Amino acid sequence: METVLENEIKLTSKDFATDQDVKWCPGCGDYSILKQAQTIFPELGVPKENLVFISGIGCSSRFTYYMDTYGMHSIHGRAAAIASGVKAANPDLSVWIVSGDGDSFSIGGNHFIHAMRKNFNFNYLVFNNQIYSLTKGQYSPTSEKGKVTKTTPFGSIEEPFNPSELALGAKASFVSRTLDRDPKHMQMVLKRAGEFKGTSFVEIYQNCPVFNDAAFFAFSDKETKKEEAVFLEHGKPLIFGHNDEKGIKLDGLTPVIVNIAENGLSDLWIHDEKDKTKANLLSRFFDTTFNGEDLPRPFGILYADERPVYDEGMTMQIEEIRSRKGRMPLNKILSGDNTWIIA
Amino acid sequence: MTNEVNLNNTYTEIEAESMVVRFSGDSGDGMQLTGMQFTDTAAFLGNDLSTFPDYPSEIRAPIGTVAGVSGFQVHFGSKEIYTPGDEFDVMVAMNAAALKVDLPRLKKGGVIIANISGFDKKNLGLAKYPETADPLEDLTLDNYILHKVDITKNTKECLAGTGLGTKEIERSKNMFVLGLLFWTFEKPLDHTIKFIEEKFAKKPEIADANIKTLKAGWNYGENTEIFNIRFKVTAAKQPSGVYRNITGNHATAIGLIAASDKSGLPLFLGSYPITPATDILHELSKYKANGVKTFQAEDEIAGVCSAIGASYTGQLAITTTSGPGLALKTEAIGLATMLEIPLVIVNVQRGGPSTGLPTKTEQADLLMAMHGRHGEAPLAVLAATSPSDCFSMAYEACRIAVEHMTPVILLTDGYIANGSEPWRFPIEDDLKPISVEFLGKPNGENGEILPYKRNEKLVRPWIKPGTKGLEHRIGGLEKQDITGNVSYDPLNHETMVHLRAEKINKIADYIPELKPDTGNDKAKLLVLGWGSTYGAIKTAVREAIAEGYDVANAHLRYINPFPKNLGELLKGYDKVLIPEMNSGQLLQLIRAKYLIDATGFSKVQGMPFTTTEMKAKIVELLNQ
């Protein structure tokens, strides 16, 4: 434990920067994510040598080269599968997956859902810019319907994934959302993810200034932010609006927007991170209208409820069987149970 | 053969040097278990043997049909046995479909034990015999010794009053067959009785029923006068030592465990179930007490990727698969080649392409193993020759992967993976050591970390995450020589392509040279094989030499790189014949590398070569 304390004191964000030139486009949201990560890592108290970043392919996945920890920039869509092996083999490592919307929800969709279900104790960051950027501008599985891109010159005819809903449907134990243009919020979410035991899914809205500029500005610009977004805090009511004048309450299982001046505060929806039913509803504050009303996009921890993690389960099962049966000597394995002698 | 009439017991005892028995029935008739029990007893009594389980890909194809026939073949003898045999001496036919499928490979004059209940109108119809035909009654089987036994009825009578349901009784009928076969071959029941008692320890009523039926089968042979022949196959003269029986997949699994034990590296298997490789995953899943981690991944790609992750942390990482799975894993294997980390990929080959013949054997993935990746991605390729050799080659695959920091593909196939043979197993101390080294401190002259600095084998250091002060990044982008940083420099790329190839070539300095297996360094003909054709080639070449032909055989277990002396060795022969269960893949490699006019001999029927066809080809070439 001494090492942990020592590191907590010593490390600064500079300790996590590498000697490699950062090569994202000017104005890319990835710079902010890198900065926030480098800022919070000293606070997590994990020795630098125990941090492992595993990334797939895409702009997001270059992240690995810029963090002075252990890291592997792997192949398209497979970061979660590789990270599963890393974590299963050595549960002592703090493993961070860095991926994008194409990497995780298209080519790596299968690994994404199984990572949520298996619940390894690792962190899964998806930089969602709703576009394929490294291949220069094609629609992604999170692009909105009607999106005009190089491969959809007449507009996309596909429904996008709703990542939070997908993660909850796949049994995620930690589902969160933050955005590149809100550094403090992102630091809070990343820290919570790092502290959570289980697969922590963090969706980060990330601006691609070249191929999908301003896709999320409504959630960060002063003029619109408070109308379009609701920031969740555990145990606090859901309040939004320019002057915090609006609240959300539940009529049965239907969210209703109320004017606080008329309604008062007492029956507003209180955010409970462990309430899966409410989390499911929150995740649908995306493209579902309730009684004809659009609801603000939730940011923060939508859901967090710890349950047994895969890597610990694997270790515990091995230890339990070993203590019950004892390690089998190699010579016994080689001979098996039925042998005969030829003189 | 010696014939001797036993006056006390009205039967003739025939002594044979070797016999082939085929158990054939419906998929649900328990023929695999029956065959394995017969095999275990034969092995225990000192026969040398080789087995061939031959079953359909459907778990329960429609009952009674030709598609549902499941066979188990065992060749056992008092001499050395290298193949499961071309033709059978004795066959059990549990139903009409089984007879229809397997009769063509019964020797003329061979013995048929037919279960009468499996030959009623319904079964004959299901097996698509013409309406008027009745093989047990008409003259179809005149050239054979036919024993008609109502196995179903006898089993029912034997178990009447035990309180067991029809289903359980029906399931016991294979034990009647086994008992009868043990009588026929003068083999004791005790080994199987012990097996039944252990298997059904928690269900004593089932154990009792099985044992009762087994004994009833034996007594049927002893008491009815229908059976007037018994066969005696005495023990083989095998090298002295302690033996066990083993299948190829089982041997592969414990080869991997042995390598883990000897190297001190924890074993990690990332795998996805696929026929005929799944038994390796089954087997390794049992060794949790030894710390073996098995990860049943969500797909083939996750299987290999999780293994890459585990290898990255410093464990002995394996993925097991068959052809379609290897195809899915290729991109990730390319990553492992770029990362230069140890990884063992076991490909238990089956008939392809596509779903192909999942339960049948083939050697058609050799060129995929050699070249099936994008870019120039050389890796080591090994092949096992027999069920027990799967142990040695799995061990070697691990040794090469770890000592040379490379992915290694081990090729076995459905034939040796499911087949079994007696194995004089090694003890721990006999096994070659595996040396492992992890970098503990910066390896640059000025204290820098150089992940791609190579040693005299051209091997880079293995660096475990968690090692303080060695934090660094690796990945699939081209690496700068020595530093491992991302590099797009044209000349550096060329250097790295050459270095990766040269590293694999250097493995040739650490593997044995090739020697003729049978025959001399110089002869008119060399039969050059690889993988599971070993038994058929060796047997055919031995017979040909005994008949005066000038022939030898050599068998490749290391295919990439080839043994260093292969080119020299080939020069000692006028002709080279390369038999393969594909359309000539090793043939292409040998011709391309050594520029010799080798002759191919190809068989792609999902079935192994027979000794007869192998010998005929050898004789044909030598008589040209």
How would you sum up this structure, described in words?
- The complex is a heterodimer of chains A (343) and B (624).
- Chain A is an alpha/beta fold.
- Chain A is built from twelve helices and twelve strands.
- Chain A has helices at residues 2-10, 30-44, 79-89, 101-107, 109-118, 163-169, 183-195, 222-228, 260-263, 276-283, 310-325, 330-335, and strands at residues 51-55, 70-73, 94-100, 123-128, 174-179, 200-205, 229-231, 239-240, 246-251, 254-259, 297-304, 339-342.
- An eight-stranded mixed sheet of chain A has the order 2-1-3-4-6-5-11-7, with helices on both faces.
- In chain A, a hairpin with a 5-residue loop joins strand 8 (239-240) and strand 9.
- Chain B contains 20 helices and 23 strands.
- In chain B, the strands form five sheets. In chain B, strands 12-11-13-14-16-15-21 form a seven-stranded mixed sheet, with helices on both faces.
- Residues 1-7 of chain B have low confidence and may be disordered.
Supply the CATH superfamily name of the largest domain in chain B. Pyruvate-ferredoxin oxidoreductase, PFOR, domain III
Approximately how much helix is present in the residues of chain B?
25-40%
Overall pLDDT metric of chain B: 95
Measured between the Cα atoms of the first and last residue of chain A, the distance is 59 Å
Quick structural gist:
With 343 residues, chain A is of the alpha/beta class. Helices cover 33% and strands 18% of the residues of chain A.
Note the topology.
The complex is a heterodimer of chains A (343) and B (624).
Chain A lengths: L1 H9 L19 H15 L6 E5 L14 E4 L5 H11 L4 E7 H7 L1 H10 L4 E6 L34 H7 L4 E6 L3 H13 L4 E6 L16 H7 E3 L7 E2 L5 E6 L2 E6 H4 L12 H8 L13 E8 L5 H16 L4 H6 L3 E4 L1
Parallel strand pairs in A: 1-2, 1-3, 3-4, 4-6, 5-6, 7-11
Antiparallel strand pairs in A: 5-11, 8-9, 9-10
Helix pairs in contact in A: 2-7, 4-5, 6-10
Chain B lengths: L1 E5 L4 E5 L2 E9 L4 H14 L3 E7 L14 E9 L10 E6 L2 H7 L3 E10 L5 H6 L18 E5 L1 H9 L6 H6 L1 H12 L5 H10 L4 H20 L5 E4 L8 E7 H16 L3 E5 L6 H7 L8 E4 L3 H13 L3 E6 L1 H17 L3 E7 L16 H6 L8 E4 L5 H16 L2 E7 H5 L1 E4 L49 E3 L14 H17 L16 E8 L3 H13 L4 E6 L1 E3 L5 H5 L2 E8 L4 H10 L4 E4 L8 H12 L2
Parallel strand pairs in B: 2-9, 3-6, 6-7, 7-8, 11-12, 11-13, 13-14, 14-16, 15-16, 19-20, 19-22, 22-23
Antiparallel strand pairs in B: 1-2, 3-5, 4-5, 10-17, 15-21
Helix pairs in contact in B: 1-6, 4-6, 4-8, 6-8, 7-8, 9-10, 9-14, 11-12, 17-20
